[in-house]
Structure formats: structure tokens, C-alpha cells
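User: Look at the shape:
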Amino acid sequence: MSTVEVLDEKANGGPSMEIEEVVSVRDHEAFAAKHIPDLGLDVKDFQVFTWNLKNWNRLEKKLTSPEFECGGHNWRILLFPFGNSNAPPNDTVSVYLDYAEPKRSPEGWHACAQFALVISNIHDPTVYTVSHAQHRFIAEESDWGFTRFSELRKLFNKQEGHSRATIEDDSADVTVYVRVLEDPTGVLWHNFVNYDSKKETGHVGLKNQGATCYMNSLLQSLYCTRYFEGYAVYQIPTEDDSPTESVALALQRVFYHLQNSDQPVGTTELTKSFGWKSLDSFLQHDVQEFNRVLQDKLESKMKATEGAIAKLFVGKMKSYIKCVNVDYESSRIEEFNDIQLNVKGMKNLHESFKDYVAVEMLDGENKYAAEGFGLQDAKKGIIFESFPPVLHLQLKRFEYDMQRDAMVKVNDRHEFPFEIDLGEFLDASADRSQPWVYKLHGVLVHSGDLHGGHYFALIKPDRETRWLKFDDDRVTPVTDKEVLEDNYGGEAQGLAAVQRNQVRALKRFTNAYMLVYIRESAMDDILAPFTEEDTPAHLKRRLDEERLQMEAKKREREEQHLFLTAKVITDDTFSRHEGFDLATFDEKNWPPSELPSFRVLKQETYSTFKTRVAQHFGYPENQVRLWVLVNRQNKTVRPDTPIPENEPTLTVEVIRNNMAARQNDLRLYLDIIPDPSKPDPPAQSIMVFLKHFDTSKQSLLGAGKVYMLRSAKVSEVTHVINERMRWTPGTPLKLYEEIKPGMIELMKPKLSFAQSEIQDGDVICFQVDMSEKEVESQGLYSNPIQFYDFLQNRVMVVFRPKFEEVDHDHPEFSLVLSKKQNYETMSTKTGEYLRHDPIKLRFTTTHASNGVPKSILKRSLNQSIAEIMAPNYINPTTTVILYEKLDVSIVELETKRSLKVIWTGIHNKEEATHPFLLPKTSMVNDLAENIAKHVTLTAGGTQKIRVFEISKDGKTQKEFTGTEMIGNIPEPVELYAEVCDSWFSIGLLSTNATLLCRRYPEKNSKPTTWTRS
């Protein structure tokens, strides 16, 4: 009897189990069959090595066995007799298979091996403990095994059902079974760390935006159809197009990057060109419909190459009814872009084609009314007139189950070949000058079920290239078995029972849903290599320019540590600054100051930098003096000290470190000396900045600087101000010191500047002294203290329409408000701007991080703007509030729920907006009835609308029965509706709600696929 234990989470073995059959470790064939699963992979070599160990309790803590060879590689056993983990000493045994010579092996080496490690009784080899695993051995992972192979006490003691202990007489055999496997693709069990798709396959993948894997698989298929890329797509004129508005240009750019990039390519421009928003990129669309819309958009842009797409993808079929007993036939020839074939009940592709063209007899009570012949027995069917060079076959893996009243996925086994002759399915009159033999070019695969899954593509880019798997951003080689057998569907084939049980669930739901075949006689033309010269010159030029810009930005980022930014305040920027200090440096505060900035090497000398600054502003160097701004303890930023002129070799970095150590950048004030021939201001003078508060204009702007003696009276500065402002001498002024945000104090004119504690860089604000009557006649704020309070609390609020409407007069606008103002003031000012009754405006707050609707604001006259805004720990530069222009007052609306449905057509483009105002006590059925009045439902459909809610991650859905009360639906929420009919449209509902409307397929029509990556 033997015990099998798999105790290490690092290995891929199964759970512990008991083996009833007596199997000897020395019976290699039987032992391997019992303990090493058959994965159905080709075996390169198989070896067994046994290592006899005595005096176990006296062994060293770490041992390695003699080396042995298997599969062209040297191996050995790595043993820790008393454990190699954090477990207590002498608690466990750790044992590994070790690649013996990783450092001497060539760069990039690897070996794929299945192995079983066994400790057995030296006298009775049927008493053993075993664990098995599989691993890709590489330089970074050259040993693999089991840290907790077995508890040591279990090895030294008899276990239940065993006649003796595994380690007996302090001795045991340690055996390793190694099966080295062939790796024809080079990626077997690859961890894909540092994997380079371009280097390994010559191709790169596409980035997944959330649920765009279905699109990525189709795009890769179209890209590898080189005739489509070069002759059809690249020849479309797009010189004057924008990539986010032109599908043709966006696709050209994607194809160009797939051809020339070394990294995965993004598709955001392409989805935007379809008119999709971010939500659409997280919802699965149907591949067939997407392909048709894509081709329609490209065909509409073609001029010189009109018909190129049809020539490639469009075939013809004839639907006919032919009488049996009279000479009468009714037929109609139609074009097709793809063929939808049944999977259920069909063994393979050939049977599906036979089913497609199967003849239906019209006889008995179902006779055909032939014109001029009356009721006749007849044959009804379809026959192909021609197949296109590139044939798209849609396998009907999704269908409507009438019994379940739901969509289901068909996972039945359905085989398809590398080559198929379609001649037998053509009309007798078809051109047969060339064989109608088709070669498999691509397999588009869906892995998952109806409600979730993933798409990828298997493509053979040309006759000589091996098959490749395009799985979003990764491209890997695959075997023929992975192309065919693994994607037929049904149960796993050809594996041992134990292994089949492990993979059954995965295999069942991974199968082909679309096949691409190319006519063999046309393959050389369709897959002809595409060269750089074939790329449109304007496209190459535009993308090369973008590449150079990106490379420049990348270099700038890489070299950023060598540079710092110097921002320079000038008298001109100060004169336009309205706020605290000399400029606004914190981007969180509004409005940020736009200051001249210089990117400076940290090792650049001050003299060189000063020359640059002087030249930039157009002053001689001897007129320029630069002051360093520092962060004061009271949270102000003020000029503190001029940079010394007697050390010209001083570097910019040293200046920053010595004079403004707490700053990442260097902030400077440019002091212009009017006449360098005159002496500098006296040593006891200070540089003071002036600001003018204009009561009539309600503005507070910089008015330059002055040098004043510390001993001078504060009142003396009024003479300088009146002269500078060209006011009448003796004009009475009030002076205020800007101490810090929230602290503005009236100054005492009789005190000296020293007594007032004024120093270099301080700010004095002045206003004309006015009588109380004059003050009352002025605007909102009569003095700087009030106005500074407004500045401290002002906020830019962006008002955006909640629902985008084409005929909207005011798509977006901004208002500057105070946080202390209330809801009523905000509503009034918004109404004035929109020329709309404020009582008929409704507002919705948004999340500060992404602008997504948050909650509807209740009308509250006492609620302040600060309370409406985001919490204090989030300090956005602007606040976004959504507004709705209503036809009723928000007081009345409190008893109703406002809904808007945006109806979009088959191309997923917005067509119309339908607003609803329903009582909160109404039901979801009432909503459905209102929707039905505004949309056109097909006469043959069920005329029913199903409303349901999809979770934010898109993985689950909750269906409404119709009896739910509208007022009980939480806000915001995403709702969806399905109209029971053939494929149709998608719409968007907002309550802050989203409603997607589409139709159920009728019986035997193509199923709608709504799954996610």
C-alpha cells in the first residue's frame, strides 16, 4: 500500500489520496501510468533515477544527488531532510527536481518536464510517498518541487494500512521520475514574463479596452488578410480626416501600428470613430454586426477602389422554389457577406453546408401556388452561385431556446477541416474554371458561456507561417491540435480519465464561433506580403511625426532627474494676478497662474541661466536681479533673498538646495533695475509689493513694488501710490497687510514699517478711502477683507447638461461662485445664464475623480456651495454639476421620476431622445408601455419589452418583472431593455439610469451575443 501526498501549493499536483492497488516504485511503467497524468503531449525522453540514503537523522541540512541525464539536460535531486521552510525544525521534508547546470546553459534555455518525486522503503518499494508536478524550467526557476513534501513523523511511523514505515532502519530511497516533453511552439507552460510577441512571432497584439477582445480578434483576422489591408483600406483617401471621427483613418492607423510597432497597439481611436463612449467599450457587441458596420463605413469612403471590399468578401446565393411536375421555377439571387451555419445536430462543417442547402418539399397541405399552374408539389431551397475569395462562416453557437425562453450557448462538438471543397454546394451553372477549394485561414474562438467569456483568434498569416494565437496584447505560436481539436467543442478527446476530469469544464466552453477560409487559387494574391512602400505617404508622415514627439517626451521623462523647472514672476504677471501672494503655484487653487517657465539643467551655472532669462525678457543682464521665493511658515510664498551676483559659477541646483530647500522647483521673482548706473536702495530698505482693490470693478490686482526704509512711516507709501496710480495728491487711502490667507488686517499709518513687522516680499493692499454712502452704492464687497474672503472661498463650478442633446443651446458653461453662497444663489445665477426659470432646473452632483453622475440635489435654500461640493479630502480644481432644464417645477417633480431614453440605431449611433416623467408610484410595465409608444416595433415580433439591470462589472443581470415601482429603483442605476423581435438597436436610458434596448431574435434567426471578456 502507498500514500500519495501533494502538499505544496507551488506544484500543480492533485489532492492527497490513497492508492489501493499495490504498485512498486521499481515498476517504472506501471508507476508512471498511475502517478504521472498523460497530457497528450509528445514525450522527448523519460528517465527514472533512484538515490539511496542511509543514516537519515545524521544527514546534512541540504543535499544534492548525483546528476543524471534526461532529454539532453542534466538533472539532480535537491533534498532538505529536515525541511526548507518556516515550519519548526525537523517537522517536514522538502524535495525538489533541480536543473543541474543553469549557469552553463545557453541564454534563453528552457526544459518542460513532468516529474514525480518519491520517497520509498528500501525493503518494500510498494510503501512510498509521492508527489507529482509539471514545470517549465528556466534560469530564473531552475528548481521546482515540494517545500512540504511530507511531515517527517509520517515517514518514520507506520501509517494506517501500511505494514511498515517509509523510512525504515534510518534509510530510504529517493526516486525521481522525469518525463521531458517536446515544446513545438516554444511557449508550453510559459509564464510570459518579458515575453516579446514581435520577436517570437513577427506580430504584435491589440490592447483590450475592457470588453473589446471580440473586436481585437476580428481586426487581427482582417489585418492578416493583406489584400484587405493594402488594397482596400490603405487606398481610402484620409488626408484631411481626424482619427477619432473617421473609421477609415483610425483603421489605417491601427494596421500601420500592427505592421511597424514592437508593442501592443491601442484601439481607442477606432472605437471613438464609431461614436462609442467608454461604456460601449465595456459591453460586448456582436462580431458579425461589427464586421458589417465596419465594411459599410469603409465602402462609403472609397472612391478609386469602390467595390474592393465586396470583391473580397461578398458572394451570391440563389433562393428558389421549383415545381416537380410542371416547368416552373421562382428564384431570387442575393448577395451575402457571411454564411450562418447550424452547429446543433451537425457533426462537422460539411454536414452544416449540406443542412444549409437541404431541399424542403412543399407537398400535401403545404403545396406551392405556382402562377398559372395552381397548387403544385415543389422543392424549396438555397444554392450558391459563387463564394467570395475570403469566406466568413458564422457558426451558430448562440441560439434562442424556446423552452427556456432564453438565449443559450451551443457547446456541441463540431469539426472543421484545414481544407474543404465547396464545389458540390454550387449551382450547376457556376464557373468551375478554378477549383472551389478553400484553405482555413482563421478561427475566431469564444471561451465561456452566454453571460461571460473571452474571445481570441487563431490565424495562419500566410502559406509558410505557422499558426498563431492572437489573444489581445499577446501573440503566441500554436500547434495544429490547438487550432482544430481544442476548438471543436464538446467533451475533451484522447486524454486519460483523470486528466479529462480536470479539463472538462474548460474544454466544454471553448469553441470556434467564426471561421475564415480563403480560396486556394486566390491565396497568393490575398496574402501577398505588404511592404513599407505600399503605405500611404500621408499616413506614414503623420505617424512618424507622432512617433518622434512620443520619443522626445520619453527622453524628457528619462532625463527629468537631470533638470529642474524655474518659474519666474514678473511685474507683468503680478499685475494680472488676482489672489493671494504674487502668484498661484498650487494647481488645486483656482485660477492657477500662467508663469514663464524654464527647463534648466541642475548643473547649469547661475550666470548662464541669468543670461538666458535676460535674453528671454529682452533686458540687459545688468538690469536683471533674481529673487528666490520661499515657503514661509504662515503658508505664504514670498520673495526672500536676491541671488548673490558675486558667485557666477554657482549652479542652479546649489541655489535651489541652499535658498529654497523645501521646493522641487525653483520659483523666482524678476526684479528689473531701471537705471543700473544709480546706486542700489539703501541697506535698511525693504521691497514691498502693492495691490489695488478697486471697489467699483470688484477687482484686486498687482500694482508693482516699492522700496521703503524700515524706519519710514507706513503713511509715506500713500504718496508713492497716488503718484503711481496718477491720482490727485493727498487722495485718502486705506492700507491693509496681506498676512496670510484668512488674515488681512488694516494697517496703522503712524507706525513705521519696522514696527508693523513688514519685511522683504510682504504685500500691502490699498483702496481709496470712501464714505459710508459711497460704500453702500458700490458692489458686493466694500473692502479688501471681504474680497479676500471671497477669493479664499471662490470656486469654479462647471455646469454641464446631464443628457447630451444635439439641439442644446448651452452644452457647457462655468460660473465663479463662493463656497458660502447657497443653493438658491447657484440656481438663480444658472437660470440667468440659461434664461430658464430657476425653479425648473434640477441639479446632479458628480464624482470628483471622473465626472460620473452621483446624486440628484434636493432643493434646499440653506444648503451652501461648500456642502454641495466634494468632501474636503478631495480638493478638485473645479466642481462639475449636471443640470436639467425641466418643463415642470422641481417641487412637482418630487412626486415623479424623470427619465430619458436615448434610442440608437443598428449602427449604435444616437438617433433620438425620448424624455419621460412618470409618477414614482407607477410600475416598470408603465415605463415599457411609454417606450413602446416612441419606438417602432416589427409587426412580426412579440411586441414585448423586457427591462433589466446589469451590474457595474457587466457580469450579472437582474430582470424586472414589470411590477416594480419606479420610485423604488435606486439612483443611479443602469437599466437595459430587450424588445422581443429580430436584431435591432441599442438605446440608453437615464434616470441617472442607462437603458439599452435591443430585440430578441426570432426562431432560426441569428442570436445576439452579450458576453464579456
